[in-house]
Amino acid sequence: EIVYLDGAFLPADQAKVSVFDRGFLFGDSVYEVIPFYQGVGFRLEEHLARLAHSLDALQIPHSDNLDEALNKLVAQNGGGNVSVYVQITRGNAGKRSHAVTADITPTVFACCQPIAPIYETGPEVIEGARVIVTDDLRWQRCDIKANGLLANILAMRQAHEAGAAEALLQKEGWINEGSSSNVFIVEQGHVITPPLHKGILSGTTRALVLELAQQHGVQVTESNISYERLIGADEVWITSSTRGVLPVTAVDEHPIAGGQKGPLWLQMFKLFTRYQQ
Length: 277
Ligand code: PDD
Known about the structure:
D-amino Acid Aminotransferase, Chain A, domain 1; D-amino Acid Aminotransferase, Chain A, domain 2; nine-stranded mixed β-sheet; 7 helices; binds N-(5'-phosphopyridoxyl)-D-alanine; transaminase activity; pyridoxal phosphate; Aminodeoxychorismate lyase; Class-IV_PLP-Dep_Aminotrnsfr; aminotransferase
């Protein structure tokens, strides 16, 4: 396995990061997860734009020609269907100090891992997911794709203990998003997803679903979703770069869509799998 570190392409076991790296010491870093299908980045531009947003929010300098580096990394690993993980930390300051100095060079790391080719499969192989709802314990800047993921990990652990595939996170009475996905519901043919604010990540898959729905005359609204609305919905979906658009068939102990994959999900899945960027 070849990974990318600070301009070099090298075997994973030869890639080394300092113990004084602020990513390691403070979680002072941001990341992206970008799917590549048949070796080609899917909505790469949108992912890099979000990465720029995360970096700007933390005043970490951007790195040049990252798209070129990622394409090269995927090619060096044989192309195919992979998700590329990119992490940019504020860098190595040589000592542990909360204060940030201007002279640090960011650490840029990327690696690949195999991904299910969701865009090449038929809807029949997609299994509906069970999800749980739990408290959103995260901080107030979830629009930044930051590496401090403890609250997400605790929530996901809780989901797995309940035999569920995802935890939806609830704050002040609203279901915001999943631990690593965005959430959608369907009410009488109408698609609804929570509006963007600093409490959720601006999902690239979310944006594509909204784009496709609008193009194909499916009504969409960005609106807050309560627990009652969620469990009473005709359909529930979660979206992410690694899972695409996934139908949810149960929320906690409540079956959704009679425990089946819904018709609007099927329509969206087809639009998705036929989407050519
Ligand atoms: N997570 N919300 C959160 C909190 C996420 O972590 C993610 C993605 C999403 C969906 O965003 P997108 O559609 O751009 O993948 C929403 C990635 C996959 C991860 O952390 O592994």
